[in-house]
Amino acid sequence: MENILVAGANGTTGKKIIALLNKSQHFNPIAMVRKEEQQAYFKNQNIQTVLGDLEADVTSVFTNPIDRVIFAAGSGGKNVLGVDQEGAKKLIDAAKKANVKKFVMLSSMGADKPEEATQLQEYLKAKHNADEYLKSSGLNYSIIRPGTLTNESQVEMIELAQNLNKHGEISRADVAQTLVQSLEDKTAPNATFEIIKGATSIQNALNKIS
């Protein structure tokens, strides 16, 4: 079993990621949370937690062995520079020092050209900078850029391309599934791609860029 650190585990998408990992025969989820009171939700399910604040020093979250990382954290617009950008960079640095095998980043559609956005430009610029930092880190990575997130049920069917050149929606459940399936070394190695709801199974879509 490999230990998977999930940054942003307490978020809506983060909890779905943890649930998928918890059912896996290969991965052991470790929920990274910012506050002690957030630990109970996971401890009640016998899921290991670690305290870590992306606005502070995060090296301690790698005290125990971590094999792979999923970054699904976000400030919700409250501190995009400190969390979405610099927090991500700090976790990438710490992951590199800890020799993690792969870093899977939850980004956002539009992060490739934030200057063209009419909304959320500051957020998209922060995500862009974090993505570029990961690309230059030397770590094996997958950067997933979903369209507008919804709370619809999982369908496990997506449309995937490096640039879809169109907007669309996708459920958080399908995003979580895509992130988890991207953890493998040979799945979308060092790849950046966009996803929306579509007609191809997640596995088949990922296989095309592996």
Automatic annotation (TrEMBL):
<protein>
    <submittedName>
        <fullName>Uncharacterized conserved protein YbjT, contains NAD(P)-binding and DUF2867 domains</fullName>
    </submittedName>
</protein>
<dbReference type="InterPro" id="IPR016040">
    <property type="entry name" value="NAD(P)-bd_dom"/>
</dbReference>
<dbReference type="InterPro" id="IPR036291">
    <property type="entry name" value="NAD(P)-bd_dom_sf"/>
</dbReference>
<feature type="domain" description="NAD(P)-binding">
    <location>
        <begin position="8"/>
        <end position="185"/>
    </location>
</feature>
<dbReference type="Pfam" id="PF13460">
    <property type="entry name" value="NAD_binding_10"/>
</dbReference>
